[in-house]
Design brief:
Transl_elong_EFG/EF2_IV, 750 residues, GTP-binding, seven-stranded mixed β-sheet, hydrolase, alpha+beta, Elongation Factor Tu (Ef-tu), domain 3, protein biosynthesis, Alpha-Beta Plaits, EF-G-like_DII, 29% strand
Length: 750
């Protein structure tokens, strides 16, 4: 699974990357906070019909609209493409915010979220519900920064469709590719919005070509721009042969006109539009909606969110071309036969209400004051309240049906990514049906695998550092905060350093760890201290080694005696999971308990390699003999196996493996040389230099250890004009010189 990091190296974004003190939250929530303020100021929200008073009937029809009228969508893009600005406009035109936000100005959304003003990035995702022309839209905001790729993927799972936002001057960028691949994986139908058509350098054709070439998608041009860059005025609706021009004197873009193209006044545009229309109709044998659904083509629209152009047609396109929940083909629905099946896709900790869990309901219904069963946690717990995240208001509701996004209160154990059903027996019944289906298709899955909704692969963290509370007395508070944060964010790993007893945070990138640190302070009131950020290395052995060990210990009146003989050898799996084998001589007479004890011992030894204490990759372990004295506990067997394997690993020839990153730097021509010179010093390996409009795109590999703090360096080198993206490529062997330098550093010899 890719683990891509992107850093926009401009002043606004990362001036405070290392020393910020800001809380993180989504921009959607920020814009909703802003709305709340307006509500408090007494503004009238006529666009929430039925929510005033206690008219249960109309409230019911609002909270549970016909499923065909629901659109669960997300907005995905490369960092800075304009997701937040587009979202702001969407909320404004659909009537849920009363003034336009601008991520660059201090007077907007960011008034409420200092940290996002400084970093200008969307970190967490949350859902917001609103209506557009009789359709219920549940919009799930996704973060653009790659340290949060997992968040994007988690959101994609619960979407029925997505809008991919592009910067029309840049076309497809590094993270667009990543999220596009993720959307492919979850089979999410998409439409493309070429944003920033007003920007100097914006090119509709260039962006469309890049969609065709880099995403290998078939663009359906539903619109053409009227002008580009500063001359951008509006769009041509190719399907209806109409042009939509936004009134240049309207400061909020609500005022625009729709005019037919006429031979007299617009001969050139009419000709272009007619050609485009013919091409479109020729290209499409079936309706746009169907091809979008089948993901054989992607509708393309354009506009400028910042200049308030093109967003209303985008909303129309969402309702017309993206699927309703019932149009998605979810295989597992047949197993539940109308019983509840939902996916918890986001956990937030609310000081007053405790954990709030966002859920996508796939089948059945959810009611407050009822028990639900969590398949992942194998536990049953109670939903105390059920809320609908309707714009800024969390509306208490009596039930919510399939296709909707719910917010539950009261669940104490459910974590992000868990599958929720009505009861254990319902899970068992569904499992039986799934098994029968699996047998037909000759699939061999375990019960849990059959029922869990498509899992998100959690990438291995590449960075770690120690974290300390301000005093020993605060350790339990820190443990509690980390536990809550882990429920929200499964890509955060926490472990205990066995030697120092310190708590260690393992994360996806520098920013990820900084944000966690910051949230502990902001949300849990704990000032913690981070140790230096370290790269997560791995170790591997180069030759086969046999070892034997005996453990003889008497505890109380019980003697534990075990002798093991095993062999460790290198294999190519690129995995941290050791391959475990049994020699023919032992395979037959080993009990299940002894087997498990042996495997536990092997796993625990492989967690800490002999060179740096890093996990061991690419190893196979064969058990040759295991002699157990009667009464010996399985813990003692595991301990003996672990010690024996560590002995073998120590004796073997070994090497350190380091994370190697794919790097993509986009830089203007004049700064190319200093960037290349700097990369050469960082053991960088340049594969290709491409041209993208006026920029150069440098593509290559660089060891992660050499690229820490790169954002600051690149900013200085290029006066803040460059951006870069990093993605974990693989773990590669360090050369012997670099390895011995690292070892001397770690052992304090240099
Ligand atoms: N010229 C122009 N600039 C835009 C447009 N839309 C957004 N921007 C600018 O692009 C920058 C990034 O916009 P955001 O809306 O924060 O982008 P984002 O994709 O949400 O960014 P992340 O949340 O950090 O991934 C800001 O400076 C915006 O003002 C547009 O249509 N035209």
């Amino acid at each position: 699974m890719s683990n891509l990091r992107i850093f926009a190296v401009n002043q606004k974004k990362i001036s405070s990357l290392h020393y910020f003190n800001n809380m993180c939250s989504s921009k959607i929530r920020a814009s909703l906070k802003r709305l709340k303020l307006h509500v408090l100021l007494g503004r009238n929200y006529s666009s929430l019909p039925g929510l005033i008073g206690n008219d249960i009937k109309s409230l019911h029809s609002i909270i549970n609209p016909p499923i065909a009228k629901i659109r669960n969508i997300g907005i995905m893009a490369h960092i800075d493409a304009g997701k937040t600005t587009t979202t702001e406009r969407i909320l404004y035109y659909s009537g849920y915010t009363r003034s336009l936000g601008d991520v660059d100005d201090g007077d907007t959304v960011t008034d409420f979220m200092a940290q996002e003003r400084e970093r200008g990035i969307t970190i967490q995702s949350a859902a917001v519900t609103f209506d557009w022309k009789g359709y219920r839209i549940n919009l799930i905001d996704t973060p653009g920064h790659v340290d949060f790729t997992l968040e994007v993927e988690r959101c994609l799972r619960v979407l029925d469709g997505a809008v991919a936002v592009f910067d029309a001057s840049a076309g497809v960028e590094a993270q667009t590719l990543t999220v596009w691949r993720q959307a492919d994986k979850h089979k999410v139908p998409r439409i493309c919005f070429l944003n920033k058509m007003d920007k100097i350098g914006a090119s509709f054709n260039y962006a469309v070509e890049s969609i065709r070439e880099k995403l290998k998608a078939k663009p359906l041009l539903l619109q053409l721009p009227v002008g580009e860059g500063r001359a951008f005025k509006g769009v041509v609706d190719v399907v209806r042969t109409e042009k939509l021009l936004w009134n240049p004197n309207s400061d909020d873009g609500k005022d625009f006109e729709r005019k037919p193209l006429l031979e007299m006044s617009d001969p050139k545009l009419l000709k272009e539009a007619t050609e485009a229309r013919n091409a479109l109709i020729e290209q499409l044998q079936t309706a746009i909606h169907r091809v979008t659904l089948a993901q054989t083509a992607v509708p393309v629209l354009c506009g400028s969110a910042l200049k308030n152009k093109g967003v209303q047609p985008l909303l129309d396109a969402i309702t017309m071309y993206l699927p309703s929940p019932e149009e998605r083909n979810y295989e597992f629905l047949q197993w539940y036969k109308g019983d509840l099946c939902a996916l918890a896709f986001k956990v937030l900790h609310d000081k007053q209400r405790g954990p709030l869990v966002f859920m996508r309901i796939y089948s059945g219904m959810l009611k407050p004051q009822t028990a639900i069963h969590n398949i992942n946690g194998n536990c049953t717990e109670r939903v105390s309240r059920l809320l609908l995240p309707f714009a800024d208001q969390h509306i208490e509701i009596p039930l919510l049906t399939a296709g909707n996004i719910a917010l539950t209160v009261g669940l104490k154990h459910t974590a992000t990514g868990d599958t929720i059903v009505s009861s254990r027996s319902s899970a068992l019944a569904a499992s039986r049906r799934a098994k029968r289906e699996g047998e037909k298709k000759q699939k061999e899955n375990s019960e849990a695998e059959r029922l869990l909704l498509a899992g998100v692969e959690i990438p291995e963290p590449v960075f770690f550092c120690t974290i300390e509370p301000p005093s020993m007395a605060k350790q339990p508070d820190l443990d509690h905060a980390l536990k809550c944060l882990q429920r929200e964010d499964p890509s955060l790993k926490v472990k205990l350093d066995p030697d120092s007893g310190q708590t260690v945070l393992c994360g996806m990138g520098e920013l990820h760890i900084e944000i966690i640190h910051d949230r502990i302070k902001r949300e849990y009131g704990l000032e913690t201290y981070l140790g230096p950020l370290q790269v997560a290395y791995r170790e591997a052995i180069l030759n086969s080694i046999r070892a034997t060990d005996t453990l003889d210990r008497t505890l109380g009146d019980k003697r534990h005696l075990v002798t093991v003989e095993l062999e460790a050898k290198p294999v190519e799996t690129s995995s941290l999971l050791p391959v475990i084998e049994y020699a023919a001589s032992v395979a037959g007479d080993l009990s299940q308990a002894s087997r498990e004890a042996f495997e536990n011992g092997v796993h625990s030894a492989c967690l800490q390699g002999p060179l740096l204490g890093s996990p061991v990759q690419d190893v196979a372990v064969t058990l040759h003999s295991l002699v157990i004295h009667p009464g010996t506990s399985t813990t003692m067997i595991s301990a003996c196996v672990s010690r024996c394997l560590q002995k073998a690993l120590k004796k073997a020839d070994k090497q350190i493996l380091e994370p190697l990153m794919n790097l993509e730097v986009t830089v203007s021509r004049e700064y190319l040389s200093p960037v290349l010179a700097d990369l050469a010093q960082r053991r960088g390996n340049i594969q290709e230099i491409q041209s993208r409009q006026d920029n150069k795109v440098v593509i290559g590999y660089v060891p992660l250890a050499e690229i820490m703090g790169y954002s600051t360096v690149l900013r200085t080198l290029t006066s803040g004009s460059a951006t870069f993206a990093l993605e974990l490529s693989n773990y590669q062997a360090m050369n012997p010189q670099d390895q011995s330098m690292l070892l001397s550093q770690r052992h304090g010899l240099s």
